[in-house]
């Protein structure tokens, strides 16, 4: 019996194109003789956002078991945190729906695949928490040195996290500045504060 699968793709800015993600997933489905019954595309939505319309639609369709497997390119495309990812997987498992993540070669239909999925999910969350910790530490250090004050700044913790996320997706400096409504120098400032952190969120 042919497996019914769906694709989920996401990009953080409206300028990005999800066609590459879809093409790779379609190729995998073709190689396995799986039938793609739907494609869910969240465009211009950060991974840290709680509300993602297409992901919500996917989970709603999962409740009706309209498919047997969810395919996505990277672990970070789907969940925004360990708890969120666990929640998504719990919903899929309750309906006996598997999860296939191409770039990490994870297939939760197997015991080994599920084990590696849990490890990769923990690593992704660790990277995000590391960035948050570095941002908070930098702010506290600045306060102690008396550098916080003066004119208001829109370079909030959330903006800094978004800058690092966009950086991990290979977005240009200019586009990051425009997307976050900050100056190019502010973008470089965030990079400097988080130097040495590998980001793929």
Largest sheet, order of strands side by side? 2-1-3-4-5
Uncertain segments: 196-201
Helical fraction: 40-55%
Structural class: alpha/beta
Q: Over all CA atoms, what is the radius of gyration?
A: 19 Å
Which key phrases capture this entry?
8 helices; five-stranded mixed β-sheet; 201 residues; alpha/beta; single chain
Description:
By secondary structure, the chain is α/β, with parallel strands linked by helices. About 50% of the residues lie in helices and about 15% in strands. It is built from 8 helices and 5 strands. It has helices at about 20-30, 55-65, 75-80, 80-95, 110-145, 155-170, 175-180, 185-195; strands spanning about 5-10, 35-45, 70, 100, 105. A 5-stranded mixed sheet has the order 2-1-3-4-5, sandwiched between helices. A hairpin with a 4-residue loop joins strand 4 and strand 5. The protein is elongated and about 65 Å long.
List the helices and strands and how they pair.
Blueprint: E1 4-11, H1 19-31, E2 35-43, H2 53-63, E3 69-72, H3 75-78, H4 82-94, E4 98-101, E5 106-107, H5 111-144, H6 157-168, H7 173-180, H8 184-193
Parallel strand pairs: 1-2, 1-3, 3-4
Antiparallel strand pairs: 4-5
Helix pairs in contact: 5-6, 6-7, 7-8
In brief, what are we looking at here?
By secondary structure, this protein is of the alpha/beta class. It has helices at 19-31, 53-63, 75-78, 82-94, 111-144, 157-168, 173-180, 184-193; strands at 4-11, 35-43, 69-72, 98-101, 106-107. It has a five-stranded mixed β-sheet with strand order 2-1-3-4-5, sandwiched between helices.
């Amino acid at each position: 019996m042919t497996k019914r699968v769906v694709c989920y793709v996401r990009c953080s800015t409206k300028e990005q194109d999800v066609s590459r993600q879809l093409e790779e997933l379609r190729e995998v489905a073709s190689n396995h003789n799986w039938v793609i019954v739907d494609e869910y595309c969240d465009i211009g939505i950060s991974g840290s956002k709680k509300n993602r319309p297409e992901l919500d639609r996917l989970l709603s369709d999962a409740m009706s078991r309209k498919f047997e497997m969810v395919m996505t390119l990277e672990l970070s495309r789907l969940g925004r945190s360990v708890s969120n990812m666990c929640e998504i997987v719990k919903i899929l498992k309750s309906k006996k729906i598997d999860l296939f993540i191409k770039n990490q070669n994870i297939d939760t239909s197997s015991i080994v695949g599920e084990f590696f999925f849990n490890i990769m999910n923990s690593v992704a969350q660790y990277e995000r928490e590391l960035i948050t910790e570095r941002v908070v530490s930098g702010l506290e250090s600045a306060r102690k040195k008396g550098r916080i004050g003066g004119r208001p700044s829109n370079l909030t913790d959330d903006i800094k996290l978004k800058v690092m996320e966009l950086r991990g997706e290979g977005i240009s400096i200019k586009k990051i500045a425009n997307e976050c409504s900050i100056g190019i120098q502010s973008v470089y400032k965030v990079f400097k504060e988080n130097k040495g952190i590998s980001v793929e969120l």
